[in-house]
Amino acid sequence: MGHIPKSDTASIPVLSFEEALERREESAAYDRERWLYVPDFYSEYRYILGTRGSRPLIAVGINPSTAAPDALDNTLKSVERIALANGYDSFLMFNVYAQRATDPDAMERELNPILHRENMKAFSYLLDLAGETPDVWAAWGTIILKRPWLADCVRDMAAIGRERGARWFTCGARSKKGGHPHHPLYLKKDAPLEPFDADAYLNTL
To answer: Minimal CA–CA distance to 129: which of 194, 199, 64, 51?
Structure first.
């Protein structure tokens, strides 16, 4: 089953990132020692999903779909394979926008500034978690074009990344038109990461 948003996120209660991170639902049926899942329940939005380790790769898609701990979708399975093949011991999946939607066309038309603000707090948290030189894999594909405000979300991410000394990478061939990073699907399981000039790319959007 896919995920079709029931409503715009502005019309539902949204936990701040701090509230979602601190929440500890004892009935949550997953191993907290292995997984980082924020919030720790299935909802209309997701800030973070990944595995815990000492050398994580932060992968950035556009928006989350149905994946949850121990129930990765094909995109997340590919992210995990690529991370391990490139020498990382874990992966952390983040998204440019936190609203769940299996079909990106179903994302809300207007950016929810509150959800975006909290999502950027989640990104800062991941960068701190990843150490002095966090590695970030741009993996959003041409889906970046689905909403005009998504590029501005990435610009905010890039600014936060500069403050934290983030190193950006891509994996696979970039699109001929626009040079957009390759989506994680349909990559060889041992495909190498390559350096990515995020600022130069953003100047073309």
So the answer is: 51
51 membership: H or E segment, kind and range:
strand 48-51
Three-state helix/strand/coil letters over 114-174? HHHHHHHHHHHHHHHHCCCCCEEEECCHHHHHHCCCHHHHHHHHHHHHHHHCCEEEEECCC
Contact 134, 164 (CB under 8 A): yes
Q: Which of 61, 82, 196, 81 is nearest to 142 (CA)?
A: 61
Strand 48-51 to 90-95 pairing: antiparallel
Any bridge partners for residue 138, and if so which? 60
Q: How far apart are CA 170 and CA 198, in angstroms?
A: 10
Confidence of residue 26 (pLDDT cuts 50, 70, 90): low
- Give per-residue pLDDT as tens, 68-120: 999 999 999 999 999 999 999 999 999 999 999 999 999 999 999 999 999 99
Asked if 63 contacts 2 with a C-beta cutoff of 8 angstroms, the reply is no
Q: What are phi and psi of 7, to 5 degrees?
A: -165, 170
